Amino acid sequence: MAEVWGDTFARERRESRFSPRCSSRTTVRRPDGGNAEVQRIWFKVVYVFDISQTDGTPLPELPTSSFGERGEDMLNRLLRFAESHGITVRFVEKCSLNGAAGTSKGTEIEIRTAETDTTTQAATLAHELAHSLLHFTPDGKRITTRDGKKVDKQQRELEAEATAYVVGAYFGIQSASNFYLASYRVIPAMFLEAVETIATTVRTILSRCQELAARGRRGFAYSAAGSSRIVTCAGNSGVCSLGRTRVSSAFASNSIQRRKSINTALAE
Fold first, then answer.
1. Global pTM?
2. Between 20 and 30 A from 166 (CA), which of 53, 55, 139, 253?
3. How far apart are CA 202 and CA 148, in angstroms?
4. Residue 64 above 60 pLDDT?
């Protein structure tokens, strides 16, 4: 007889001759001879099966993308933030940690480009920057304790994702952080314990982004003679980029006086 695969997913396991078995840890309480109970860990044999061996309601797809109109703006600002902190960011088709949208090694960050858009990459970069700031020393060594307390995987992901969520919200970006944190069994009480750390990290990132943007408001636009490259620094956003970038006519007209000196610098 097929058995129901959980009340949540409403799926049933097909009858099959092949049912792998494995050991599963379980906790039981037994009297210690008196009135108290002793908690002990035991192992029992359980049957396992793959989703391909089940039928029923399709499993829900967890959202992994981020949404918002300022994804490119956020990404460029965070890239400038990373550069100002000596953090190298590389965009790769596949991260060294297979399947991950991004990874951080402190001074080096990888962002996956396969099956992700600019906005999702921006949200991922915010997450990885939080890891770099909070969970690594300046020379790239992993931080395992803080104030005498252990910083485990769950705590690291809570701090990084919560920081990324707030930074993204500042730029109008929405991310499915609730699903991500649920996968690490994060509960509300943990946020209260980490709120000061999260707030400090958010302030560090956003204040620096604002500072860099203020510098960029002196913006300029120029092109090298005989070259199709255009380097722009948009006055409103403080975002610089290199490539075949169009500059609005209004912005370009305000930059004419700067072009001669900049063209000379490029020629050198």
1. 0.65
2. 139
3. 23
4. yes
